[in-house]
């Protein structure tokens, strides 16, 4: 992403966004990538789900060198979830049961993130409080165990920290032990299976075998990040609010505030996101010529499924716009609305308005 995209006129930012979406779909559908996914799933059948923050820095496929489409993401502002939320619980259970009915085990990676170099680069959803974010991740793990069992033989909940300065994972055991992958280098790879066995003795061997490529990939990736002198974005410069699902292409830091359709009360995260956008404009971090409200819903098949996705996306767009208009009327004057549906098999985002 060009570093100056945040400062460009709103129309140029919108054009950049659609190009980013098209490029993501093209890459996902590329024959080599398709075959790589099929081969990978044949060798590593565990179904991997990730619960994570909307922050674009948390790009797990990139940070673990995993083919696109292997890790099933659930993204929400702050990585805040509650499995008691009816829609969230239904989606997660459906994803888990689909895998189990196909004879696959499930690994649910529950993430929190922070910056070791500067607290202000942490998770805005928890006011950059690492301990609060970690505690929430542990609470989600407890909820997963309450639903799917505590023996972990079919569904394994794994709490993972994500240190964004070096893109390094921190694995948490159920006993409170840690394995910080930033402390390891490529020369340590032969000993990783034993370290995972010691850290996660209750993890089924197949799941541990399928976790291993992610761990090895992250060690290699984070080692490269430490060798780079990369610019670390400190300030919030988001200029778009995304409501719904289907935003996997948005793995660019400080661009979007993503609100999943999971909570029964979407007005609270929408207002928090609107407040961040307004602050970004007032502080001169982004131009005040407009911001984008983008809603999206995925579908699998043409026909009723696609039509239903469009209705859901339109409802979420109207709901979010109404909340912003009522509570932030001056900001609402600068709002540009776009509604889309996402063809899940190809990750193609199509605007419908």
Account of the 3D structure:
With 353 residues, the protein is of the alpha/beta class. It folds into two domains: 1-43 and 235-353, Carboxysome Shell Carbonic Anhydrase, C-terminal domain (60s Ribosomal Protein L30, Chain: A), CATH 3.30.1330.140; 45-227, Beta-carbonic Anhydrase, Chain A. Helices cover 42% and strands 20% of the residues. The protein is built from ten helices and eleven strands. The strands form two sheets. It has a six-stranded mixed beta sheet, with helices on both faces. The chain has a five-stranded mixed beta sheet with strand order 8-7-9-10-11, sandwiched between helices. Helix 5 links the parallel strand 3 and strand 4 (155-163). Helix 6 (192-199) crosses helix 7 and helix 8 (267-282) packs across helix 9 (304-327). It is globular and about 60 Å long. Pfam families: CsoSCA_cat. This is Carboxysome Shell Carbonic Anhydrase. Residues 39-173 form the Carboxysome Shell Carbonic Anhydrase catalytic domain.
Note the topology:
Blueprint: H1 10-29, H2 31-43, E1 47-53, H3 60-64, E2 71-76, H4 86-101, E3 106-114, H5 130-148, E4 155-163, E5 168-172, E6 178-180, H6 192-199, H7 205-227, E7 240-244, E8 256-259, H8 267-282, E9 291-299, H9 304-327, H10 329-332, E10 335-343, E11 348-351
Parallel strand pairs: 1-2, 1-3, 3-4, 7-8, 7-9, 9-10
Antiparallel strand pairs: 4-5, 5-6, 10-11
């Amino acid at each position: 992403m060009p570093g100056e995209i945040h400062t460009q006129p709103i129309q140029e930012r919108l054009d950049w966004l659609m190009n980013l979406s098209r490029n993501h779909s093209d890459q996902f559908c590329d024959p080599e990538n398709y075959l790589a996914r099929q081969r990978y799933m044949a060798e590593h059948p565990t179904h991997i789900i990730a619960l994570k923050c909307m922050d674009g820095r948390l790009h797990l496929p990139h940070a673990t060198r995993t083919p696109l489409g292997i890790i099933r993401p659930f993204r929400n502002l702050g990585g805040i979830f509650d499995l008691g939320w009816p829609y969230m619980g239904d989606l997660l259970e459906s994803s888990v049961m689909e895998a189990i009915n196909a004879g696959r085990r499930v690994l649910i990676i529950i993430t929190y993130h922070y910056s070791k170099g500067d607290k202000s680069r942490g998770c805005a959803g928890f006011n950059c409080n690492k301990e609060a974010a970690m505690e929430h991740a542990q609470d989600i793990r407890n909820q997963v165990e309450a639903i799917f069992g505590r023996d972990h033989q079919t569904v394994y909940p794994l709490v993972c920290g994500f240190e964004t300065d070096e893109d390094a994972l921190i694995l948490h055991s159920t006993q409170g032990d840690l394995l910080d992958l930033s402390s390891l280098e490529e020369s340590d790879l032969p000993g990783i299976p034993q370290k995972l066995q010691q850290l996660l003795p209750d993890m089924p061997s197949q799941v541990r075998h399928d976790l291993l490529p992610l761990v090895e990939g992250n060690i290699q990736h984070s080692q490269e990040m430490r060798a780079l002198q990369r610019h670390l974005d400190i300030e919030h410069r988001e200029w778009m609010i995304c409501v719904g699902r289907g935003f996997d292409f948005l793995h660019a830091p400080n661009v979007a505030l993503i609100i999943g359709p999971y909570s029964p009360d979407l007005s609270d995260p929408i207002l928090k996101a609107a407040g961040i956008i307004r602050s970004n404009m007032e502080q001169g971090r982004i131009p005040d010529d407009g911001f984008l409200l983008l809603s999206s819903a995925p579908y699998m098949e043409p026909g009723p499924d696609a039509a239903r996705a469009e209705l859901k996306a339109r409802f979420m767009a109207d709901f979010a716009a109404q909340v912003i208009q009522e509570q932030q009327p001056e900001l609402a004057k600068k709002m540009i609305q776009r509604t889309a549906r996402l063809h899940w098999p190809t990750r193609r985002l199509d605007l419908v308005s």
